[in-house]
Amino acid sequence: MAEEKVQETNKDEQIGFHKGALSTLAKEREEMAKILSIVESLMQMHLKALKELGVDLEAQAKELAATAKTQTEPQGTDKKIDELL
After folding, report:
1. Which of 48, 59, 73, 83 could tie 79 with a disulfide, CB 3.0–4.6 Å?
2. 36 & 62 share domain
3. DSSP state, 77?
């Protein structure tokens, strides 16, 4: 009977530990989403400013993709917009 009580306590402790971990991780995920939202907003702001200054990153990306296709580069080496910066 004492052994059952110890096992029950151990199980309760494990359940509490996992619930606490999930709660903490959920809050961390919320904060990460906020950070991602801020970063995305800042990137959009900079893209808009570049566009107003006459820099069209989309056109540059298309040019790079076109030149990459004409060259003998292996597939999958197209530059992403992040690489243009």
Report:
1. 83
2. no
3. -
Let me know whether 19 and 40 are in one domain.
yes
Are residues 79 and 47 located together in one domain of the fold? no
**Distance (Å, rounded) from C-alpha 49 to C-alpha 53?**
6
Q: Please write the tens of the pLDDT for every residue from 69-82.
A: 877 545 555 666 67
Structure tokens that stand for 30 in this block: 């919320």
Taking the C-alpha atoms of residue 41 and residue 28, their distance in angstroms, rounded to an integer, is 20
Write the pLDDT tens digit of every residue in 5-64.
778 779 999 999 999 999 999 999 999 999 999 999 999 999 999 999 999 888 888 888
Output the six-digit token pair for 34: 């906020």
Q: Which domain holds residue 30?
A: 1-53
What token pair was written down for 68?
């990459």
Domain count, the chain: 2
- Six-digit token string for 57: 């990153």
Whole-prediction pTM: 0.57
